[in-house]
Amino acid sequence: MIHSTIAWIALPFFIGFVIYLAPKVSRWLAVAIPLFSASYAGNIFLNTDPGDALSIQLIDTLGVNLIVDHLSGWFILTNALVTLAVIVYCWQTSKKPFFFMQLVILHGSVNSAFICADFISLYVALEVISIAAFLLIAYSRSDRSIWVGLRYLFISNTVMLFYLIGAVLIYQANHSFNYSGLLNASVEAIALIFLGLLGKGGIFISGFWLPLTHSESESPVSAMLSGVVVKAGVFPMVRLALMLEAINPVVRLFGVATALLGVSYAVFAKDTKRMLAFHTISQLGFIMAAPIVGGFYALTHGLVKAALFLISGILPSRNFKELKHQPLDLKIWLALIIASFSISGFPLLAGFGAKVLTTKNLLPWQVIAMNIAALGTAISFAKFIFLPRQKLVKSNLATKNNTEMTTKPIQLGFWGAMIILLGGLVLANGVYYEAYTFKNLLKPLATIAAGWSIYLLIVQKLTIKLPRTIEQFEHLIGVMSLTLILLFWTVWTRIQYST
Amino acid sequence: MLEAFVFITVLCGFLGIIFKQNLLMKIISMDIMSTGVIGYYVLIASRSGLQTPIIGSTNSDDLAYADPVPQAVILTAIVIGFSIQALMLVCAMKLAKNNPTLETSFIEENNTP
Asked: Contact at 8 Å (CB) between A240 and A291?
């Protein structure tokens, strides 16, 4: 297992450079990597027990530490499926081998973030992610994409500098960078480390860089960013919360706050991709709110969000108001409905099982807030669900009339990606079939019904435009210092209570 | 004392990122900040001594060696930091074509929807 793990981590980087040398087979090489990752994740699930963890120490305690268990398995599977779908989606487009190379390298570095167990390996993984993600965002090389990418790179590099200071403080206390030494270090070390992870994962107020970055990138890139890349920042927090009892409440608290904050912006968003991006912030909160089952939630969210971003890329407009006057093609509408239903927690799709699991593992003080967040999810996705569609009979005529105006020819790759992502959702539904009891069924249905009625009665008519000042570059950097103080205070009080 | 200087450097860099208007100055401020962080690693490494940790150079038992681990780690961080700097400067060059003053507020205004 150790050798296969190391080979599996190294392969994407190796293949990434081979792609550049052999551009003609780039697509085939690229598609092999996520398949390999998926089989590796399958291997984890089949060959280890849920409680077990394979712990690998290279060299000694000063060297690289890796932990592979079921939690990483879920995240790796998410990464594999989303990357596979994105590659299939881009198969027929005119993307250059460079694009596929970056995609594969991004995939590899995200994978390594999901298994590493010491702060320096994590630092390296996160920085490689920043660079690869930046190159993907700036792929079109327009001024806007360069600015959005530069902003992302700048913010993530600045938080990572704070993170490095935290890492050395931990080394000073333990003479090792291992995760387990976090609590021996001082409170400011924990606060600095968390600032890095919060900033990188787009959590709470330090996550305001995320909406613009995710909404202004190309659809396949947004799907990657929202589906897996932000989870590389969240995963270490989930891991730390599970390893160290004292950190658990801090992570849960930030999870709840993030879920509420993200969803309250998502409800009022007028633009499809911005709504999805804000909603990503809130879903990361759900993952953190119940760390123990975060892996399954991450899988369902990754699949749905990638699917929705890919769909929003082929919708005729990004504005919800305009979309209301342009009936959608029935097939696209169906895909949209399946994804939206899953994320709202509708039974028969994986989102339902994930929501039930998360609700079960919440602490009493979290329940009300998370229910409000789930209600917000239902409200914001009602925007997608109530979009008009073409009638079956009329569709032929209507498409003929509108072909040039509304629908671009949809490539086969899109449907391939949808089959992978939505098929994954339906299959993953079987993982937690115990969820199907009458009581469990009632609650999500009630939430969805309440969400839809609130949408139809109130939100639809509202035209509140939330200010975007906080998304300006300088404010994003400034918020970091505020977050640092907040973190310091939170960690300090919580740790005092727990000891 | 030295620690205070290191933190002042980090703080200067951070404030520079916030308050400097010019994109190029912001990038340089970030470099200053990372210099501070690197300095801190070196400082922590030298807590146990100042000698270069090479086995077999002199009688090795009673010498006070500097801790090699933080130094090795920060070497990685330096390389990553400088590659990111390079990437950012290329971006700044590209952006300078349409925004010759490189004022971030203008670039931001032009490039946000």
From this structure: no
Q: Which range of residues forms the domain containing residue B104? A: 2-52+62-111
Number of domains in chain A: 1
ipTM for the predicted complex:
0.94
Contacts of B87 in chain A (CB under 8 A): 131, 134, 153
Two tokens, residue A338: 């399946």
Residue B25 lies in a domain: yes
- Sign for the pseudo-dihedral over CA of A124, A126, A130, A132: positive
Range of the structural domain that residue A49 is part of: 2-498
pLDDT in tens, A77-134: 999 999 999 999 998 888 889 999 999 999 999 999 999 999 999 999 999 999 999 9
- The total domain count for chain B is 1
Distance CA A145, CA B58 (A): 56
Query: What pLDDT digit, counting tens, does each position of B52-101 carry?
Result: 777 766 665 667 888 888 988 999 999 999 999 999 999 999 999 888 88
CB contact under 8 A, A158 and B30: yes
Q: Quick check: is B57 in a domain?
A: no
Mutate to test the interface with B, among A131, A157, A169 (most CBs of B within 10 A): A157
Pick B94's closest partner by Cβ from A146, A212, A468. Answer: A146
A342-363 burial, b for 16+ CB within 10 Å, e for fewer? bbbbbbebbbbbbbbbbbeebe
